[in-house]
Amino acid sequence: QVQLVESGGGLVQPGGSLRLSCAASGSITGINAMGWYRQAPGKGRESVATITRGVSIKYADSVKGRFTISRDNAKNMVYLQMNSLKPEDTAVYYCTANVLTYDHYWSDYWGQGTQVTVSS
């Protein structure tokens, strides 16, 4: 099995910064794309940022210039540096990874989510 565990969420004032981390562990042979999604109250889950193993990166228009995604392939980790946070960034943030497991199947896995609240 594969587990993704996020950390780094919390309460921050508008204009502040947070750094989210996500560690993947378990029966991992390799990881292709990793990314961050978020879900605000009453809204659907949306993609925030994704990064492939080849370091191809995509951002949602709403976070371009403010958020930076990065990964450490040796540690099976992905990060999201969030700067200039706005109240509309408030959401539960989920980590996801496309993983090749020991039984030679590619599957998408999700973390349990971490709450980010931007409020004064």
Describe what you observe in this structure.
The termini are far apart. The protein has strands at 2-7, 10-12, 18-26, 28-39, 45-51, 57-59, 67-72, 77-82, 91-101, 106-110, 114-118. Strands 2, 4, 5, 6, 9, 10 and 11 form a seven-stranded mixed β-sheet that branches. Strands 1-3-8-7 form a four-stranded antiparallel β-sheet, with no helix packed on it. It is mostly beta strands. It is built from no helices and eleven strands. The radius of gyration is 14 Å and the shape is elongated.
Detail the topology: elements first, then pairings:
Layout: E1 2-7, E2 10-12, E3 18-26, E4 28-39, E5 45-51, E6 57-59, E7 67-72, E8 77-82, E9 91-101, E10 106-110, E11 114-118
Parallel strand pairs: 2-11
Antiparallel strand pairs: 1-3, 3-8, 4-5, 4-9, 5-6, 7-8, 9-10, 9-11
